[in-house]
Amino acid sequence: MQIPTLLSLAKASSLAYLSIDKIPASPYYESSQLQPLFQVVDPASQSGATVFLPDDDSSIVVACRGSANIKNFATNLRFNLEALVHQGFQDASLGLWSELEQKLFGVLVERDMKMRSVVFTGHSLGGATALLSSVHYIASSKNNANWPKPSIVSFGGPKLCNSPLARHIRNTALQNCNILHLVHDKDPILANNQQLWDALGFENVGLEIECDPNNPLVYDEKPDNPSFAWNILDHCYYLGVFVGPRLTI
Question: What region holds the Fungal lipase-type domain (predicted)?
């Protein structure tokens, strides 16, 4: 994906933290070139998603919200393996998909399936639910070859499953889908969880790409001298976009 597309998806992930009535007041609204269509929230997990339509009508963007309340943060801590996947993320994605499925497919039908792509994106917890929601999307649409295959882009998203399941999702469930995980070495959430993920045998499902937290830049390789990750706010900056909860949402 090109930098302008990644930047627009980072802004979508940021806007997903806002209630839909507050999105037009965001400084990212006009520059994102995205129009919010609808927003859903799973009552049980409080995981949310906002569905956007780009101004060029080229795709549908499903932006899953990251942690914005106590229930969301509790979801992150539910590390019990359920079918080899992080239980909290699995439960959140199932609840979110039950709220999202009918409305999302309704948009595809309404627009006569002319969208060239469906993109699932999100920051942090939202990156995990975006990935798992795309799996539910594939499963729900497998009998209709006309539905577009999804792409997945996460920003600071966690590793959520062990190696065998990651390979299954990558090579079978999401076969031929683009899956990108944008990370940076200043993100303390990623740095502090790496040891735990290694102990659990978790790995990324897709391609990990190093990016700049403060500028719209991506790198071919990780920096030779990585930064010391300590500032929690650095978890909320990707490509120069603030991607995180606001005091008022």
Answer: 61-189
| Domains of the chain in sequence order | 3-242 (3.40.50.1820)
CA 11 to each of CA 5, 32, 92, 95, 120: distance values in angstroms, whole numbers, following the listed order = 10, 6, 22, 24, 13
Closest CA to 130 of 119, 118, 138, 121: 121
Phi and psi at 102, nearest 5°, equal -60, -40
What are the start-end ranges of the E strands in the chain?
34-41, 48-54, 59-64, 81-82, 85-86, 117-123, 150-155, 161-162, 179-183, 202-203, 207-211, 218-219, 237-238, 241-242
Structure tokens at 191: 């740095």
As beta bridge partners, residue 34 has: 54
188-245 pLDDT per residue, tens: 999 998 888 888 888 899 999 999 999 999 998 776 666 667 678 899 999 999 999 8
Beta sheet of 81-82, edge-to-edge order: 81-82, 85-86, 161-162, 202-203
- In eight-state DSSP terms, residue 149 is P
73 secondary structure, DSSP code: H
